[in-house]
Write a structure and sequence with these properties.
There is one protein chain. Helix content is 30%, strand content 22%. It is built from seven helices and eight strands; from the N terminus they run αβββααβαβαββαβα. Strands 1-2-4-3-5-6-7-8 form an eight-stranded mixed β-sheet, sandwiched between helices. It is globular.
């Protein structure tokens, strides 16, 4: 029964993302990078670069895929990567090497991927932004709680805190959290408790219920742009020796 439910949710999530994707966007340059990690695994990363914000380096955003995190789901979210690249960010979309979500121990691969990507001359050294939709938003929140001082902020639209997830001081971590008020999986009912837990842990949370959509929805880019402009993004990359 659980396997059947998993396939139904996967199909629903994929269809929703593809519906939002619409026509292909060609406003950002795309590169494929294979990142080798110290555990012997290799993470395929699609990197989108802005084409109208200078020659870089650009601050890095990690777009965490939902579902199983496989390449099919990653590609279904390219529309979001391209839109964020239009804001002047380098967008990295990692593909899970084992088709498992970036949660738990698998989530600890993401900081290693970031460290490798920041050796690229087009990617700014320093804090990165985490972004995710649906279970990808939940993964982004979890990754940030593991080491909140290493991130500029988190966009979870939508996202929830995984049951049993423990964390302490989030050090004023900016979090942009959006959930549909009639969410298909009733995530809207968890918002009040999430907001309480996150603010008690000293997160700086911008949370709202969206009055349209059911689970995956169109983002308000003007509102998101306002939030992005509030982040303390460095204007240039410091010269710092890379430490693996």
């Amino acid at each position: 029964m659980k396997a059947v439910l998993k396939h139904i949710l996967f199909a629903f999530f994929s269809a929703a993302l593809l519906t939002l994707a619409g026509a292909p966007d060609v406003s950002a340059n795309e590169r494929l990078i294979n990142v080798s990690l110290d555990d012997g695994s290799e993470v395929k990363v699609f990197l989108f670069e802005p084409d109208d914000h200078g020659d870089g380096p650009w601050p890095l955003t990690i777009l965490i895929s939902g579902g199983t995190g496989n390449e099919y789901i990653a590609r279904a979210q390219f529309w979001l990567g391209r839109k964020l690249a239009e804001q002047g960010w380098a967008i990295a979309v990692p593909v899970s090497p084992d088709s498992k979500p970036f949660t738990g121990e698998n989530a600890r691969r993401i900081p290693k991927v970031i460290a490798k990507l920041q050796k690229d001359e087009k990617v700014m050294y320093g804090k990165s932004l985490l972004v995710g939709v649906s279970s990808g938003g939940s993964s982004a929140l979890e990754i940030a709680t593991q080491d909140p001082t290493q991130y500029l902020g988190v966009i979870a639209a939508p996202g929830v805190l995984r049951p049993g997830l423990e964390f302490d001081n989030l050090h004023d971590l900016p979090i942009y959290l959006r959930i549909a008020e009639n969410d298909t999986f009733n995530w809207d009912e968890q918002l009040a408790n999430m907001l309480l837990r996150l603010t008690r842990a000293n997160a700086n949370v911008d949370a709202e219920l969206i009055n349209n959509g059911s689970h995956v929805f169109q983002l308000d880019w003007q509102d998101l742009g306002r939030w992005l402009d509030s982040l303390e993004v460095p204007q240039s990359a410091p010269t710092i020796e890379y430490i693996p």
